[in-house]
Design brief:
The structure holds 2 protein chains of 2 kinds.
Chain A: H1 17-21, H2 26-54, H3 65-101, H4 109-131, H5 145-149, H6 154-181, H7 194-226, H8 239-273, H9 280-293, H10 309-337, H11 346-369, H12 371-377, H13 381-411, H14 417-444, H15 458-488
Chain B: H1 23-58, H2 60-67, H3 72-97, H4 101-131, H5 148-185, H6 194-218, H7 222-225
The chains are: A mainly alpha, B mainly alpha.
Chain lengths: 537, 227
């Protein structure tokens, strides 16, 4: 019997513009975020296209020096603050946290809507910066260049970061309280899906880290506006202090971006190998371990910034330690796949892509944690390649994998199977072609943030630019077929994957109140039949 | 609005939001939410205290010298006023737990008055600094030339820290107006008082920030210079 579309669900519970802009339904708010975050993803992507066009030839003849400075700055600011940080928590997290714990909504629905408006306000400020002169400080906004010398729109950009930060803080607060207080009967901490553990760990980082970047951005704005001295040596301040404050947030921010993706991968691997996640509690605690250790490693961004040798050694050692919880996850996903009944659905393709690319990104992170190698490749394309393997190869793979996995739940419809697999493949190929050459470029000495380079680097740069164009096709395809599926996709039914978890027990799309009866939980989140073990005697 | 004085555990309490099972769960969520928010606030002010600590360690003499330009009598009065306001806020929460609407409104108004007095005195102090050219920036002037830059750092920190503290107080007074309206309308009462409790938590936090700011800004270097 073909699945039927439910008669009443959250999408047809009101149609007017007000039913969306004033909604308190976490599922609709997730879709508001989906629209806004997708917009900023393509804005940030457009800057990347222009950067790669310029780098296709050695002399830097496509845009001027100043424009190039603005391109890579705006690419970084938009992608980090308006795409990578909110993407998985604000879209998938918002949609799934109440569903996964069997609640009717987040603890504070009005606050949730407010978070979206704050995000939009920050986004509008970002657009204002773009339209009125841009920003050329790099996304890092190092003082005193940002507070004294830059002629671009530093103050509105800093305030945009300040405002947007409160959106993440409030979303994190909402998740923490919801997970503590709103779980359905029987949903103990160790019966929670691993996506929730990683969302919880991410929220903790948001609560503790984001206020520090907020105050730092505020100090930058105040120093620039009123000549109050904090970081500018001419005013008695210390620029290295800015870097400490900046990276105290911005290194944990990497984990804000990657931890939710890791949570998604745990769900995907279990669902498509039809096995419980191997070493559940290790994976759960490794998320918290990453959140804690992530706060203690910021100094590895400052090995050449004049911090003491001893501080550098401690930060180097701590950075190696972060690899342990990350590796626990990778090994446990692999062990979950071992002898699993693997089905090659699109989300699983993304999951496998994630595991491979994150491993490369993570291992090159160990190169960079070693002080000697770090000094050699600091501020080269090696760094660029490394963190794009984490953020694009990791976070975006996890995000797209999760979006495909839960799309039938979100929309109630199936997306085209063949086309989605093709686009996953295109993204994987395009990604590696774009960023692998950058490891070599960096190792050979091509510095980041320069738009002219010696002719011998051209072959690798052209490969990278060609890869970027393939990647762009891969990212555009899902947007089109997801939109197509909203109208023409086949009804998905409550549980098209035969997956375990509370979110699959309600209809697709779910009703506004999520569950007609509050569920009572007795089983583990990965309640798959244990595989038949054949003893060959 | 007719009240049948429903019990606070009732699933039909008028203040119960649809997604909670009962009022106790709702109140626990609100209170946990505020505690988590205060953690964020600690880190927010924590960044400033870090900057303060580093520069004070680098320039102890200049910080002591600059600190002597702050008005200790006014700062002391303000400390007393703010501690008093925490007492009245605690009384308001107590009245809320006893379902006394009159008590809530009386003590919240008293807290607002004390908060207003604090802000007024702060304004007087700011205007003194303005006349003494102690506002950092192009017009900053400092008698002891060797301390010019670090003293300017001190005053940058003084204004940003006390300024953000004052903004938090203004927000707190705004929240109290909201509580007054809700109490007047009868939304608060009948066993539902967590908004008052949560605003109380916030107000005590703002108070505690001042308890750190006062000695760190006003009272440093006293033993070294014999004042």
């Amino acid at each position: 019997m073909a699945p039927e579309f439910p008669a009443h669900h959250y999408l047809n519970n009101g149609y007017g513009i007000k039913s969306w802009l004033l909604t308190r339904d976490h599922k609709r708010i997730a879709l508001l975020y989906l629209a806004a975050v997708t917009f900023f993803f393509f804005v940030g992507g457009a800057f990347a296209v222009l950067i790669r066009l310029d780098l296709a030839t050695p002399p830097g003849d496509f845009v001027s020096d100043d424009t190039y400075n603005q391109l890579f700055t705006m690419h970084g600011v938009v992608m980090v603050f308006f795409f990578l940080i909110p993407a998985i928590p604000a879209i998938l997290g918002n949609f799934l946290v109440p569903l996964m714990i069997g609640a009717k909504d987040l603890a504070f629905p009005k606050l949730n809507l407010l978070s979206w408006y704050i995000y939009m306000l920050g986004g509008l400020m970002g657009v204002y910066v773009l339209l009125t002169g841009g920003l050329d400080t790099g996304w890092t906004m190092y003082a005193p260049f940002s507070t004294r010398y830059s002629t671009t729109r530093v103050v509105p950009a800093a305030l945009a970061v300040f405002v947007t930060g409160f959106s993440s803080i409030l979303t994190g607060l909402n998740f923490i309280v919801t997970i503590h207080r709103m779980r359905a009967p029987g949903m103990t901490w160790f019966k929670m899906p691993l996506f929730l553990w990683s969302t919880y760990a991410t929220s903790v980082i948001n609560i503790l880290g984001t206020p520090v970047i907020a105050i730092t951005a505020l100090l930058v704005a105040v120093e620039r506006l009123f000549r109050f001295g904090f970081f500018d040596p001419a005013l008695g301040g210390d620029p290295v202090l800015f870097q400490h404050l900046f990276w105290f947030y911005s290194h944990p921010a990497v984990y804000i971006m990657i931890l939710p993706a890791m949570g998604v991968i745990s769900e995907l691997v279990a669902a498509f190998c039809r096995k419980p996640v191997f070493g559940y509690s290790f994976v759960a605690f490794s998320s918290l371990g990453i959140a804690v250790l992530g706060f203690l490693v910021w100094g590895h961004h400052m090995f050449v910034a004049g911090q003491s040798v001893y501080a550098a050694m401690v930060f180097s050692m701590l950075s190696f330690l972060v690899a342990i919880p990350s590796a626990i996850k990778v090994f446990n996903w692999t062990a979950t796949m071992y002898k699993g009944s693997i089905s090659w659905q699109t989300p699983m393709l993304y999951a496998i892509g994630f595991i491979g690319l994150f491993t490369i990104g993570g291992l090159t992170g160990l190169f960079l944690a070693s002080i000697g190698v770090n000094v050699h490749v600091t501020d080269t394309y090696f760094i660029i390649a490394h963190f794009h393997y984490i953020m694009v190869g990791g976070t975006i793979m996890g995000y797209l994998g999760g979006l495909h996995y839960w799309w039938p739940k979100i929309s109630g419809r199936l997306y085209p199977d063949g086309l989605s697999k093709l686009s996953a493949l295109i993204i994987f190929v395009g990604f590696n072609l774009t960023f692998f050459p950058q490891f070599i470029l960096g190792y050979l000495g091509m510095p980041r943030r320069y738009h002219a380079y010696p002719p011998e680097f051209q072959v690798l740069n052209v490969l990278s630019s060609a890869g970027a164009s393939i990647l762009a096709v891969g990212y555009l395809l899902p947007m089109f077929y997801f939109a197509w599926s909203l109208r023409y996709g086949k009804p998905a039914g409550a549980n098209p994957w035969g997956a375990s978890g509370l979110e699959w027990e309600t209809t697709s799309p779910p009703p506004t109140e999520n569950f007609s009866v509050t569920p009572t939980v007795t089983a583990s989140p990965y309640n798959y039949p244990s595989p038949v073990v054949k003893h060959v005697a | 609005m007719a009240h049948a004085a429903p019990h606070s555990d009732s699933p039909h309490h008028p203040a119960l939001a649809h997604h909670f099972d009962n009022l106790a769960q709702q109140q626990e969520a609100a209170s946990l939410g505020m505690w988590v928010f205060l953690l964020t606030e600690i880190l927010f002010f924590g960044g400033l205290f870090l900057v303060y600590t580093i520069y004070r360690a680098w320039y102890p003499d200049a910080f002591a010298s600059a600190s002597h330009h702050l008005d200790i009598p006014l700062g002391t009065v303000n400390t007393a006023v703010l501690i008093g306001s925490s007492l009245t806020m605690a009384m308001a929460v107590h009245a809320a737990q006893l379902n006394s609407r009159r008590g809530i409104m009386l003590f919240i108004v008293l807290t607002m008055i004390l908060g207003g007095v604090f802000l007024g005195i702060k304004g007087v102090e700011y205007s003194h600094k303005f006349h003494e050219h102690l506002i950092p920036g192009p017009h900053f002037a400092y008698a002891e030339a060797e301390f010019f830059r670090p003293a300017q750092l001190f005053f940058s920190l003084y204004f940003i820290m006390t300024g953000l503290h004052a903004i938090h107080m203004i927000i707190g007074i705004g929240l109290m107006i909201w509580m007054l309206v809700w109490t007047y309308k009868g939304i608060i009462g009948d066993g539902y008082f967590s908004p008052v409790e949560v605003v109380g938590l916030y107000w005590h936090f703002v108070d505690i920030v001042w308890i750190f700011l006062f000695p760190l800004l006003y009272l440093i270097g006293r033993h070294a210079t014999g004042h």
